[in-house]
Amino acid sequence: MTSEAQPHHRLMPTLAQVVDAADSLWPFRLQENWDASGLVTGRPDQPVQRILFAVDPVAPVIADALQRHADLLITHHPLLLRGATSVAALGFKGRVIHDLIENRCALLACHTNADSARRGVSDALIAATGVNPDDAAPLFADGTDPNAGLGRVGTLSRSVSLRELAHRLATNLPGTAQGLRIAGDPDQMITTVAVCGGAGDSLFEEVRAARADVYITADLRHHPASEAREHALGPGGHGAPALIDAAHAASEALWLPWGAQDLQRTLAARGFDVEVSVSDVRTDPWDFRVASPDSDSTPNHTSGETS
User: Fold this and answer.
1) pLDDT, position 255
2) pLDDT of residue 239
3) What would the mean pLDDT of 252-267 be, rounded to a whole number?
4) How confident is the model at residue 3 (pLDDT cuts 50, 70, 90)?
5) Which of 28, 72, 88, 102 lies deepest, with the highest CB count within 10 Å?
6) Beta-bridge mates of residue 108
7) Residue range 138-161: average pLDDT?
8) What is the β-pairing status of strands 72-75 and 149-150?
């Protein structure tokens, strides 16, 4: 007498259990006081079988989540960061919320908590430069957890020129219209690297205190970047740090596969079987750029040509 194979029944977590797993990886207590990380839509007791990661909760990403029949969309950026007085489907945020709710897809934002946590956004970014993230330290440590905090600083195993580091980073980051903007001598040798995924011009003092040779971040504005260069070129500045300005979404997107893998592993360790994937929808808002005719001219404050 033979026994028939029993059908495999997937043990799916509830949304509340997935949020708890996310909190164990990227504690929500680490988020900045102005942030809005956390659950945006969804019933805590609804089952979750498919999870999708993305940077931005924009309409094409929502469409991708629904096409994949995702039960949960986890985005880095919050949908309602600055609050709202209405979620009527009259604007894009209201339409997004209605699409999610009507299709029973929850939305969870992991923003500055994922920036500060280990194996978070800045760890993924510094790994793209060649620094071992396990050996990197926060630029601005969290008061309750010195191993966590905003930004990272670490040392390359082999010093490289600013030009070589920039090419390495450009290869490892998702492609964008902006590419990389770089301030500094292309031949300057880089050993100590500081990074902050997303907009990081509030950490210049910490970067200088760390004596980093280069600072990699996004959304650098004219005045903070100009003042940083003046600090570097002034007495005792030693020409550092050079600056590499990446596109905002690109500087954060490297974390998505890390986050997906870590969440799937954590849920599996708790006995749950879920599908976790990363959206391939491009959410960088810029479509193309036109370089200035003299864009290859001699860099400011330095000698030599860029390549």
Assistant:
1) 98
2) 57
3) 98
4) very low
5) 72
6) 39, 74
7) 94
8) unpaired
Type of residue found at 156? L
| HEC letters along the chain | CCCCCCCCCCCCCEHHHHHHHHHHHCCHHHCCCCCCCEEEECCCCCECCEEEEECCCCHHHHHHHHHCCCCEEEECCCCCCCCCCCCCCCCHHHHHHHHHHHCCCEEEECCHHHHHCCCCHHHHHHHCCCCCHHHCECCEECCCCCCCEECEEEEEEEEEEHHHHHHHHHHHCCCCCCCEEEECCCCCEEEEEEEEEEECHHHHHHHHHCCCCEEEEECCCHHHHHHHHHHHHCCCCCCCCEEEEECHHHHHHCHHHHHHHHHHHHHHHCCCCCEEEECCCCCCCCCCCCCCCCCCCCCCCCCCCCC
- The two three-digit tokens of residue 288, written as one number: 């193309």
Could you give phi then psi for residue 226, rounded to 5 degrees? -65, -45
Pair of tokens at residue 198: 């997303």
pLDDT surpasses 70 at 298: no
pLDDT: is 256 or 230 the higher one? 256
Tokens of 238: 């030693």
Can you tell me the distance from the alpha carbon of 241 to that of 8, in angstroms, rounded to the nearest whole number? 56
Alpha-carbon span 86 to 83, nearest angstrom: 9
pLDDT of residue 302: 44
Residues 147-161 have a mean pLDDT of 97
Task: Round to whole Å and give the CA distance between 185 and 277.
Answer: 40
Domains of the chain in start order, with CATH, are 15-114+254-278 (3.40.1390.30), 129-250 (3.40.1390.30)
Cis peptide leading into residue 241 (ω within 30°): yes
Residue with tokens 């003042």: 227
**242: nearest Cα among 297, 196, 186, 198:** 186
Q: How many CA atoms lie within 13 A of 214 on its CB side?
A: 32
Point out the least confidently predicted range of 35-49, 82-96, 152-166: 82-96
